[in-house]
């Protein structure tokens, strides 16, 4: 008899969970239907899911987040804060969506600079016209035992595109880059194939997909992503921390 009661209890719990799942699925379907009907210009919805706020749903379009009510009658654009934990739930969610697996980066689209033994790894997205990138390169030059993968990321206008093209298509991109960023030497014109030019387009598309919105943006071997012109001390500390985790 006791065993029968336990089985009945488990059955009741299972039915409740199934009903809740079915309700959530139906609610998501209703939102997917309602929003495009009310806002035809809305891009295709990739995901709808519940938030910690009762009756409020997250609508994901690519890596962009919006919020709506259960009926899809209202659309909210902004950030959600958890005031108890003082955390920005929207930023945390976007960070998870745009996390970059360093091991899967298309390193063939970057030029490589090795200093010393090059045992540690650092990935940099940089624009040749970025003043902060030039400051960063000056600090990076003080670091030893590192292999740097630099993705040219021309987002500061057409002149950045032209400079990046001439750097990437040079016989020694790393040398031309250092001469320009550290010494201010003029970048020589270079002849580029369509395949080489396509690399720069891929870099920009990659950055847009993963919301790389400024330069320099640094990626360390442990997956940590840091924007801005760090000092040599900061770079060294993060490289050492990443090496310990590997």
Automatic annotation (TrEMBL):
Compartments where found: Periplasm
Keyword Disulfide bond tagged: yes
Identify the residues that the record assigns to the Thioredoxin-like fold domain, covering every copy: 115-239
Signal sequence bounds: 1-26
Primary site of residence: periplasm
Q: Where are the transmembrane segments?
A: none
Q: Its domain of life?
A: Bacteria
- Note the Pfam families from the entry: DsbC_N, Thioredoxin_2
Q: What InterPro entries does the entry give?
A: DiS-bond_Isoase_DsbC/G (IPR033954), DiS-bond_isomerase_DsbC/G_N (IPR018950), DiS-bond_isomerase_DsbC/G_N_sf (IPR009094), Thiol:disulfide_interchange (IPR051470), Thioredoxin-like_fold (IPR012336), Thioredoxin-like_sf (IPR036249)
Please verify whether the record's keywords include Protein biosynthesis: no
Keyword annotations for this protein?
Answer: Disulfide bond, Periplasm, Redox-active center, Signal
> By its UniProt entry, which SUPFAM superfamilies does this protein fall under?
DsbC/DsbG N-terminal domain-like (SSF54423), Thioredoxin-like (SSF52833)
List residues of the Disulphide bond isomerase DsbC/G N-terminal domain.
23-90
Annotated GO CC locations:
periplasmic space
Q: Which family does it belong to?
A: Belongs to the thioredoxin family. DsbC subfamily.
Q: What does this protein do?
A: Required for disulfide bond formation in some periplasmic proteins. Acts by transferring its disulfide bond to other proteins and is reduced in the process.
Q: What is this protein called?
A: Thiol:disulfide interchange protein
Give the lineage.
Bacteria, Pseudomonadati, Pseudomonadota, Betaproteobacteria, Burkholderiales
Which gene does this sequence derive from? dsbC
